[in-house]
Amino acid sequence: MASSTLYYPVGYQNSTEYGTTPDGNVTLTYTAGGRTAIVTLLCDESVNIASILTVGEFQDHKEHYYFYLTHRCACPGACVPPGLGGLSTGSVLVIIFFVVVIVYFLGGMMFLKFVGHKEGLDIIPNRSFWSSLPGLIKDGIVYFYNSILCWRSDYEKF
């Protein structure tokens, strides 16, 4: 038996308009054709599972559908999305790393200049290490690459 129930949209997400009620609650208004859905967000810090009350149409506002959504996240500042609450652990570690590197170089340069009485390139702390580092990195990459190729082609020759 075929159903005679009709379904129609009362609002599209891309038509959202934000507003507030006189008592400070946030409203979301969605439209679709001549229909309008008005969702009022109600703050209740004790509610962890959202509840929605469907009021429907009022006689004086045909094709206006009213809903009330109650949840603790409707309270200002109650639910902060991840990433908006501060720096991540990785960001903090990167900042600490660069601060330590800057302090190392500046402190080392000042020490070698004023205490060690060095000048020019000699004020770079551990200059021989830093000048050989690019070559050491290249040697490590070449060794790793050759190890992989030897392992894949003929393990016993390695």
Please, how many domains? 3
CATH superfamily of the largest domain: Mannose-6-phosphate receptor binding domain
- What does the average pLDDT come to? 85
From the alpha carbons, calculate the radius of gyration and give it in angstroms: 33 Å
Helix tally?
A: 2
Q: Tell me the β content.
A: 15-25%
Here the CATH topology of the largest domain equals Cation-dependent Mannose-6-phosphate Receptor, Chain A
CATH architecture of the largest domain: Distorted Sandwich
* CATH C-level class of the largest domain: Mainly Beta
Protein name: Cation-dependent mannose-6-phosphate receptor
Pfam families: Man-6-P_recep (PF02157)
Transmembrane segments: 92-112
Keywords: Glycoprotein, Membrane, Transmembrane, Transmembrane helix
List keywords for this structure.
elongated; 5-stranded mixed β-sheet; 5 strands; Cation-dependent Mannose-6-phosphate Receptor, Chain A; alpha+beta; 158 residues; 25% strand
How would you describe the overall organization of this protein?
The chain folds into 3 domains: 13-74, Mannose-6-phosphate receptor binding domain (Cation-dependent Mannose-6-phosphate Receptor, Chain A); 88-125; 127-158. It is of the alpha+beta class and 158 residues long. The chain contains 2 helices and 5 strands. The chain has helices at 89-114, 127-153; strands at residues 17-20, 26-32, 35-43, 51-58, 61-71. The protein has a 5-stranded mixed β-sheet, with no helix packed on it. The mean pLDDT is 85. Keywords: Glycoprotein, Membrane, Transmembrane, Transmembrane helix. It comes from Trichoplax adhaerens. This is Cation-dependent mannose-6-phosphate receptor. The chain crosses the membrane at residues 92-112.
